[in-house]
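[retry 2/3] SMP-30/gluconolactonase/LRE family protein: previous attempt timed out, resubmitting with same input.
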Amino acid sequence: MGDNPIYEIRDERFGAMVIGSAGLEELYSGCRWTEGPVWFSDLNCLLWSDIPNERMMRWTPDGTVSVFRSPSNYVNGNTRDRQGRLVSCEHGGRRVTRTETDGTITVLADSYRGKRLNSPNDVVVHSDGGVWFTDPTYGILSDYEGHKAEPEQPTRNVYRIDPTSGAIDAVVEDFIQPNGLAFSPDETKLYIADSGSAKHDVPRHIRVFDVIDGRTLANNRYFCSLDVGHPDGFRFDVAGNLWTSASDGVHCFSPDGTLLGKLRVPQTVSNLTFGGPKKNRLFITATRSVYSIYIKTTGAQYP
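[retry 2/3] SMP-30/gluconolactonase/LRE family protein: success.
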């Protein structure tokens, strides 16, 4: 990559995935804490959350930025289901919602065993329609990203919402603060970040589980740790490489957990997604701004 200061190449495989002449573009600034980027290929736009400002924003390739939803109920993580509908985690409502094609909002989950959820953080949808989400306490720790409150759940869990019955099951209950999550490209594994180190002297790693019958998890094991900051949101490319947020940028790990390299970003990164017509553009939410950069690999998310 010559003297390009954006990249820190630890492995030649990373060098083959990045474009030396591609620059890191700041698409928008002026937010307080950006999160939850999600690409809409059919609408040719990027949506993301500006949590403390309680709004969701929209960017289009002509450079136009507009407010998509305000108030947003302090939405954090977003994704799309296989029907293209927006699925969001609301700190303010302590719930997971789906935006229908007519704009109405359906509540998918707001409680577990008769008690309110903590503050749903990030969400992914399996090809069978099951909705999986993390539920740390970040949104109820203060009034900055939600509404300060005492947690009602005794643990910080990862949940699955059944697509047929709507039943909610806790699939993992031993995280300090579960955060980002994503399925491997073939959906045989689920990766979950523990960002407990953001508030405690504890894990800053990503764990991986085998997905059993699309419903439960088994074979819990360590995948990787960050050497700077803690993992928040992440996504996979089609080759199974994991691209995760970090305090110094984006870190890329191979399927065996090897750190291949870093993409340096001037602000602390919260999350990322692939997008653009060819899904070869990495969109990055980082503190007050949204950035993008073209790379040589393709994102694995759907639709």
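[retry 2/3] SMP-30/gluconolactonase/LRE family protein: The longest helix spans residues 12-15.
[retry 2/3] clearing retry counter.
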